[in-house]
From TrEMBL:
InterPro entries: TRAPPC13, TRAPPC13_C, TRAPPC13_M, TRAPPC13_N. GO terms for cellular component: TRAPPIII protein complex. Pfam families: TRAPPC13_C (PF23643), TRAPPC13_M (PF23647), TRAPPC13_N (PF06159). Residues 193-316 form the Trafficking protein particle complex subunit 13 middle domain. Part of the multisubunit TRAPP (transport protein particle) complex. This is Trafficking protein particle complex subunit 13. It comes from Salmo trutta. Residues 37-189 form the Trafficking protein particle complex subunit 13 N-terminal domain. Residues 329-421 form the Trafficking protein particle complex subunit 13 C-terminal domain. The lineage of its organism: Eukaryota, Metazoa, Chordata, Craniata, Vertebrata. Belongs to the TRAPPC13 family.
Amino acid sequence: MEVNQAKQEHLLALKGLHMEISGKFPTLCKPNPNVYLMRLTKPTLFTNMPVTCEDRDLPGDLFGRLMKEDPSTIRGAEALMLGELLTLPQNFGNIFLGETFSSYISVHNDSSQVVKDILVKADLQTSSQRLNLSASNNAVTELKPESCIDDVIHHEVKEIGTHILVCAVSYTTQAGEKLYFRKFFKFQVLKPLDVKTKFYNAETDEVFLEAQIQNITTSSMFMEKVSLESSMMYNVAELNTVETEDEGTSTFGKMSYLQPMDTRQYLYCLKPKPEFAEKAGVIKGVTVIGKLDIVWKTNLGERGRLQTSQLQRMAPGYGDVRLSLEMIPDTVNLEEPFDITCKITNCSERTMDLVLEMCNTCSIHWCGVSGRQLGKVSPSASLALPLKLLSSVQGLQSISGLRLTDTFLKRTYEYDDIAQLCR
């Protein structure tokens, strides 16, 4: 009797908290199992509404004494809304993409007859697929009056939009009649983060990725991990820490909290792997960079995780011949020669026979022979070109005046504003 009474009290409490699903019920003259559903979530901190007044007002210190006697307030900080007690969820709450949806399903025999061969099935219908969430597909032999079948389901939410949880129950009456009914529960999955990305193509083959992550929920988030899983052609370096003698310190501080509607910027540098670095044609056509992996925690440690789709950049156009700087000094002395090293890469699909011409400007003068042959350069091949210059004007100067001519097609490639240096 005590066990049955405890189950009845449990079901009454469940009916007060559950989100009942609309559906068709069997007729009242037949055994009537029923389905109850409650979402399983962490409790929340109880918040009280403090009421205060001046000491010379009519209530005097009455409100203050009542708040001190209230067990839900924090001792010494009774006027704060935050309390020390936990409260059970009073409603369904919000479900965000990347979180785990957990639910308690109870099938209770409300009739006075025994039902047999009870099979409970829980499916989750999304806009693109239907998933079976039932822990077991085996039928229960019989269910006595005032007894119940319990099940807990879990699902990591990977789609936004409308979700429908379909609970289907089939059973057999004592007379051998097979009955079946379904109940539906509809809920929305919201987007927790807004992710924006920007790509910057460096003069070398390096690619910089800036990721802007905004918390668009109403609660704070602890950002446990934000990493970039690069594609097979790149190595990634995270630029979100400041290196010290002992260890690296995050640029966001020790407590990595992201407040509601706040935005945080993450920066990554991708370098081609050595086996692909010399293949100019391969690197030129690579648009897939990788994907972001974001892990966070909310409230009392509820975890969420999101992975973006493959991030793609706009491949830079280098033309047939690419000229990049390998070495250049930061500052130079006036009217003193200095050295730079250029790298010339054949990005076309044919062999080129190149001739180098150097044209002086009003501030930069080239030291060397202009019009010299550089030789033949195969497709995707590169050659290093050391050059000597001289600056005759003070201030920030731009290096210009390089010309490369392909003798096969009689085509000239002009390179101005290659770099800037300071006298």
